[in-house]
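User: what does the whole thing look like in 3D?
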Amino acid sequence: MRKLLTSKWTKVFVFVVSSIPFVLLAIRLVRNDLGINPVETLQVTTGDWTLRFLLFTLAITPLRKTFKLPELIRFRRMLGLFAFFYVTLHFITYLWLDQTFNFSGMLDDVAKRKFITVGFAAFLLLIPLAATSTTGMIRRLGGKRWHRLHSAIYVCGILGVIHYYWKVKSDVRAPLFYAAILGILLLWRVWDAYFRDKGNAPAPARAGVSATD
Amino acid sequence: MLIRRKPELTYADVTPKEVYSNRRQFLRDIGIAGAAAALAGREIYSLAAPNLTAYATSKLNFVKGPFSTDEKITPINDVTHYNNFYEFGADKADPAKNSQKFKTSPWTVSVEGEVKTNRKFSMDEILKLAPLEERIYRHRCVERWSIVVPWIGYSLSAILKQFEPTPKAKYVAFQSFYDSGEMPQSKYTGIDYPYVEGLRMDEAMHPLTLLSVGMYGETLPNQDGAPVRIIVPWKYGYKSIKSIVKIKFQEQEPPTTWNKYSAAEYGFYSNVNPQVDHPRWSQATEHRLGELFSRKTLMFNGYADQVASLYTGMDLKKFH
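Assistant: Here's the predicted 3D structure for the full assembly of 533 residues, as structure tokens:
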């Protein structure tokens, strides 16, 4: 397992798999096969994958600690960047196909409609995280400051789920499903911090890995 | 970005049932080999699956009616596979999927309330009550998508005029058919059933307001509100209640389903109005199905000349 997780090819594999939703969407777009309301299909699909990748990213730490697999950390940056990639597509479809690059219309939406306000806030908040994801930036910022900045991912996750919940008309099952997963991932952190404080961490992370936790 | 769209079907192209029958669903349901069914076509369809009434529409005789738009008609496949009919699920693909076994015959519509005598109509009586007309109307959903549909029916006033309302009759309330057993997906949709709607008397009597029994030359498919529904083209789509079983004259403004769910978002009037935003999105633009870029939404969905006078002096923001 260790060997598999540290292999260069596993990383390539995760990259390819993470690209599949995009490739499928691109193929459907070129083949004009995006369903009856193509704009909605683009928005919903890119939105769904943004939330999923945010949750994948947030699942790395609980998984690597619970299963004592610190090597999983190798995939976190990539998964986070995929979340940013899909949210960028999500934003572009909105700005281009929905607003037709009408920036004042967009700002009007951001100011007046709370589901767009929170969605837009989450998108803005993800930009500095993506920009400081390089190893150079981590070094420049220093682990502690970088870590503090990147805890904004929790806020992004919460805002993203609220964005989805406020968007749906009345069937809230799907947003509640995402909210439940997010809740578990965040509560795990509270629980983990509580026990670690008591010097009773269930799965102490290895030195060097915890710095980027 | 390369976005190619196939040339749209013309109205003449869309009627053949093989084109818009959901073959795959059909094959799964009756479990016979694909090739055989594809060859045998409609004959096998009617023999082997008599209960699949979703597409078991039949031709209607009609004349061209007034008020039709000359805008491009939305392909029937879009209208039958992308719509809201919450009794069959909240996803826009759900109605086509889940309404297949919905029984629409026999069907009665009861007219009651503040009238001298109540009366029940059979579907046969409704079909023969007035000459059927084709009206090509714009249809604008509150969710910002829109379609152009050739409905078949006659003005709702034709049936309402057969009654002698009491002086108390100020509103007309409508109720949809509901059976939780036949519509199990309705449980997860978050709204109350049966679905109810209503109009002010002058709105209900307006010649644009349609009692519709068909579309695209045939009877209504189940997912689009078979066998009989109301069409109010200058209001958001949810006012155009489907599969009605009751029409009631009454004194009080009737409760309406989406208004009960969220009064701030869905008013009683629900006139299409690009100047009054939905709390969660602007109503200034819409996506016409089949078009990639949004277009401007028109006041009263483009029917201002016909209906604006009904609302003279009213604060349309307050009475949204």
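In plain terms: Chain A touches chain B at residues 29-30, 32, 35-40, 97-98, 100, 105, 108-109, 112-116, 166-167, 169-173 (CB under 8 Å). Residues 2-212 of chain A form one domain.
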